[in-house]
Amino acid sequence: MVTSPRYKRILLKLSGEALEGNGGNGGIDFDTLGRFCDEVAEVNQMGVQMGLVVGGGNIFRGGEWAGTGLDRPTGDYMGMLATVINALAIQACLEARGVATRVLTAIEMRPVAEPYIRRRARRHLKKGRIVIFGAGTGNPFFTTDTAAALRANEMGAAILMKATKVDGVYDDDPMKNPKARRYEQLDYTSVLAQNLRVMDATAISILSKCCGVNRLERW
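User: That's the sequence. What structure does it adopt?
Assistant: C-alpha coordinates below.
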Protein backbone atom coordinates (compact mmCIF):
# COMPACT_ATOMS: atom_id res chain seq x y z
CA MET A 1 0.00 0.00 0.00
CA VAL A 2 1.35 3.42 -1.00
CA THR A 3 1.36 5.73 2.01
CA SER A 4 3.41 8.61 0.60
CA PRO A 5 2.54 9.77 -2.93
CA ARG A 6 5.39 10.45 -5.34
CA TYR A 7 3.88 13.77 -6.44
CA LYS A 8 2.13 16.32 -4.25
CA ARG A 9 0.34 18.17 -7.07
CA ILE A 10 -0.45 16.82 -10.53
CA LEU A 11 -2.31 17.94 -13.63
CA LEU A 12 -4.18 15.29 -15.60
CA LYS A 13 -5.26 15.90 -19.20
CA LEU A 14 -8.20 13.66 -20.07
CA SER A 15 -9.30 13.39 -23.68
CA GLY A 16 -13.00 13.63 -24.34
CA GLU A 17 -12.82 10.44 -26.39
CA ALA A 18 -11.73 8.56 -23.26
CA LEU A 19 -15.22 9.15 -21.84
CA GLU A 20 -16.90 7.39 -24.77
CA GLY A 21 -16.11 3.93 -23.49
CA ASN A 22 -15.62 1.02 -25.87
CA GLY A 23 -18.55 1.97 -28.08
CA GLY A 24 -16.84 5.01 -29.55
CA ASN A 25 -20.18 6.46 -30.64
CA GLY A 26 -19.76 9.84 -29.00
CA GLY A 27 -21.36 11.22 -25.88
CA ILE A 28 -20.53 10.11 -22.34
CA ASP A 29 -20.50 6.49 -21.24
CA PHE A 30 -21.35 6.80 -17.56
CA ASP A 31 -19.93 3.41 -16.64
CA THR A 32 -16.59 4.52 -18.05
CA LEU A 33 -16.93 7.87 -16.31
CA GLY A 34 -17.68 6.12 -13.03
CA ARG A 35 -14.57 3.94 -13.24
CA PHE A 36 -12.45 6.99 -13.99
CA CYS A 37 -13.92 8.89 -11.03
CA ASP A 38 -13.29 5.92 -8.73
CA GLU A 39 -9.59 6.11 -9.60
CA VAL A 40 -9.46 9.90 -9.22
CA ALA A 41 -11.19 9.67 -5.84
CA GLU A 42 -8.61 7.10 -4.70
CA VAL A 43 -5.75 9.44 -5.67
CA ASN A 44 -7.47 12.31 -3.88
CA GLN A 45 -7.72 10.24 -0.71
CA MET A 46 -3.94 9.80 -0.81
CA GLY A 47 -3.58 13.55 -0.32
CA VAL A 48 -2.53 14.34 -3.89
CA GLN A 49 -3.68 17.75 -5.14
CA MET A 50 -5.15 17.26 -8.60
CA GLY A 51 -6.21 19.48 -11.46
CA LEU A 52 -8.03 18.11 -14.50
CA VAL A 53 -8.20 19.49 -18.02
CA VAL A 54 -10.79 17.66 -20.09
CA GLY A 55 -11.27 17.67 -23.84
CA GLY A 56 -14.57 17.68 -25.71
CA GLY A 57 -13.95 15.35 -28.64
CA ASN A 58 -16.67 12.92 -27.55
CA ILE A 59 -19.23 15.66 -28.16
CA PHE A 60 -17.69 17.90 -30.81
CA ARG A 61 -14.36 17.07 -32.41
CA GLY A 62 -12.02 19.71 -33.71
CA GLY A 63 -12.20 19.82 -37.49
CA GLU A 64 -15.82 18.71 -37.68
CA TRP A 65 -16.67 22.26 -38.66
CA ALA A 66 -14.63 22.00 -41.88
CA GLY A 67 -16.82 22.15 -44.97
CA THR A 68 -19.96 22.98 -43.00
CA GLY A 69 -19.91 26.75 -43.40
CA LEU A 70 -18.70 27.32 -39.84
CA ASP A 71 -15.60 29.44 -39.48
CA ARG A 72 -12.71 28.15 -37.38
CA PRO A 73 -13.29 30.38 -34.34
CA THR A 74 -16.97 29.36 -34.13
CA GLY A 75 -16.07 25.69 -34.37
CA ASP A 76 -13.43 26.09 -31.68
CA TYR A 77 -15.85 27.86 -29.34
CA MET A 78 -18.34 25.02 -29.82
CA GLY A 79 -15.57 22.62 -28.84
CA MET A 80 -14.86 24.67 -25.71
CA LEU A 81 -18.51 24.41 -24.67
CA ALA A 82 -18.29 20.64 -25.16
CA THR A 83 -15.43 20.52 -22.64
CA VAL A 84 -17.63 22.27 -20.09
CA ILE A 85 -20.32 19.61 -20.50
CA ASN A 86 -17.70 16.96 -19.74
CA ALA A 87 -16.34 18.96 -16.81
CA LEU A 88 -19.78 19.21 -15.22
CA ALA A 89 -20.36 15.46 -15.69
CA ILE A 90 -17.03 14.69 -14.00
CA GLN A 91 -17.85 17.09 -11.16
CA ALA A 92 -21.22 15.46 -10.51
CA CYS A 93 -19.71 11.98 -10.62
CA LEU A 94 -16.88 12.88 -8.21
CA GLU A 95 -19.15 14.68 -5.77
CA ALA A 96 -21.44 11.62 -5.71
CA ARG A 97 -18.35 9.87 -4.30
CA GLY A 98 -17.85 12.51 -1.63
CA VAL A 99 -14.99 14.30 -3.39
CA ALA A 100 -14.99 18.11 -3.20
CA THR A 101 -14.55 19.67 -6.64
CA ARG A 102 -14.66 23.00 -8.40
CA VAL A 103 -15.17 23.65 -12.11
CA LEU A 104 -13.35 26.73 -13.38
CA THR A 105 -13.90 27.88 -16.95
CA ALA A 106 -11.83 30.11 -19.22
CA ILE A 107 -15.10 31.49 -20.64
CA GLU A 108 -17.33 32.98 -17.97
CA MET A 109 -20.59 31.14 -17.32
CA ARG A 110 -21.20 31.93 -13.67
CA PRO A 111 -24.50 30.05 -13.23
CA VAL A 112 -22.70 26.73 -13.75
CA ALA A 113 -19.02 27.31 -12.91
CA GLU A 114 -16.48 29.73 -11.48
CA PRO A 115 -14.43 31.89 -13.85
CA TYR A 116 -10.79 30.84 -14.07
CA ILE A 117 -8.58 32.89 -11.74
CA ARG A 118 -5.13 31.45 -11.11
CA ARG A 119 -4.90 32.34 -7.42
CA ARG A 120 -8.40 31.01 -6.76
CA ALA A 121 -7.59 27.74 -8.50
CA ARG A 122 -4.40 27.27 -6.48
CA ARG A 123 -6.32 27.99 -3.27
CA HIS A 124 -8.86 25.30 -4.13
CA LEU A 125 -6.03 22.83 -4.70
CA LYS A 126 -4.44 23.66 -1.34
CA LYS A 127 -7.78 22.95 0.33
CA GLY A 128 -7.83 19.48 -1.18
CA ARG A 129 -10.46 20.15 -3.82
CA ILE A 130 -10.10 18.69 -7.30
CA VAL A 131 -10.12 21.52 -9.80
CA ILE A 132 -11.59 20.80 -13.23
CA PHE A 133 -10.60 23.30 -15.89
CA GLY A 134 -13.13 23.76 -18.68
CA ALA A 135 -13.30 25.72 -21.95
CA GLY A 136 -9.65 25.20 -22.83
CA THR A 137 -7.69 28.45 -22.91
CA GLY A 138 -10.80 30.44 -23.78
CA ASN A 139 -9.31 31.30 -27.17
CA PRO A 140 -9.85 29.79 -30.62
CA PHE A 141 -6.92 28.19 -32.47
CA PHE A 142 -5.58 26.62 -29.23
CA THR A 143 -6.24 23.05 -28.16
CA THR A 144 -6.95 21.58 -24.75
CA ASP A 145 -3.42 20.14 -24.89
CA THR A 146 -2.14 23.71 -24.83
CA ALA A 147 -4.58 24.50 -22.01
CA ALA A 148 -3.21 21.55 -20.03
CA ALA A 149 0.39 22.71 -20.51
CA LEU A 150 -0.53 26.22 -19.39
CA ARG A 151 -2.54 25.12 -16.35
CA ALA A 152 0.14 22.65 -15.26
CA ASN A 153 2.67 25.46 -15.12
CA GLU A 154 0.28 28.02 -13.61
CA MET A 155 -0.69 25.58 -10.87
CA GLY A 156 2.91 24.57 -10.18
CA ALA A 157 2.13 20.91 -10.89
CA ALA A 158 5.01 18.48 -10.42
CA ILE A 159 3.92 16.48 -13.45
CA LEU A 160 1.48 16.64 -16.36
CA MET A 161 -0.16 13.33 -17.27
CA LYS A 162 -2.29 12.67 -20.33
CA ALA A 163 -4.96 9.96 -20.38
CA THR A 164 -6.16 8.78 -23.80
CA LYS A 165 -7.47 5.64 -25.49
CA VAL A 166 -3.95 4.35 -26.23
CA ASP A 167 -1.26 3.16 -23.80
CA GLY A 168 1.66 5.38 -24.75
CA VAL A 169 3.37 7.48 -27.40
CA TYR A 170 3.71 5.85 -30.83
CA ASP A 171 5.45 6.79 -34.08
CA ASP A 172 2.10 6.34 -35.86
CA ASP A 173 -1.56 5.94 -34.95
CA PRO A 174 -1.79 2.47 -33.33
CA MET A 175 -5.53 2.41 -33.94
CA LYS A 176 -4.83 2.43 -37.69
CA ASN A 177 -1.35 0.93 -37.93
CA PRO A 178 -0.79 -2.28 -35.93
CA LYS A 179 2.96 -2.02 -36.61
CA ALA A 180 3.25 1.37 -34.89
CA ARG A 181 6.22 1.47 -32.51
CA ARG A 182 5.72 2.56 -28.91
CA TYR A 183 8.29 4.75 -27.18
CA GLU A 184 9.20 4.22 -23.54
CA GLN A 185 10.79 7.67 -23.18
CA LEU A 186 11.20 10.75 -25.38
CA ASP A 187 12.61 14.22 -25.04
CA TYR A 188 10.62 17.22 -26.21
CA THR A 189 12.97 17.99 -29.11
CA SER A 190 12.40 14.54 -30.58
CA VAL A 191 8.63 14.91 -30.32
CA LEU A 192 8.77 18.16 -32.30
CA ALA A 193 11.36 16.94 -34.81
CA GLN A 194 9.44 13.74 -35.58
CA ASN A 195 6.06 15.51 -35.59
CA LEU A 196 4.64 13.00 -33.12
CA ARG A 197 1.05 13.81 -32.29
CA VAL A 198 0.92 12.90 -28.63
CA MET A 199 0.23 16.60 -27.95
CA ASP A 200 0.16 19.57 -30.27
CA ALA A 201 3.39 21.43 -30.97
CA THR A 202 2.37 24.51 -28.98
CA ALA A 203 1.83 22.43 -25.84
CA ILE A 204 5.14 20.60 -26.26
CA SER A 205 6.94 23.90 -26.79
CA ILE A 206 5.44 25.33 -23.58
CA LEU A 207 6.45 22.26 -21.59
CA SER A 208 9.98 22.27 -22.98
CA LYS A 209 10.49 25.86 -21.81
CA CYS A 210 8.61 25.87 -18.51
CA CYS A 211 8.40 22.37 -17.10
CA GLY A 212 11.03 20.94 -14.78
CA VAL A 213 10.77 17.53 -16.48
CA ASN A 214 12.62 17.39 -19.80
CA ARG A 215 11.08 14.24 -21.22
CA LEU A 216 7.89 12.33 -21.90
CA GLU A 217 7.51 8.93 -20.28
CA ARG A 218 5.00 6.09 -20.55
CA TRP A 219 3.10 5.31 -17.33
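The chain has a mean pLDDT of 87.
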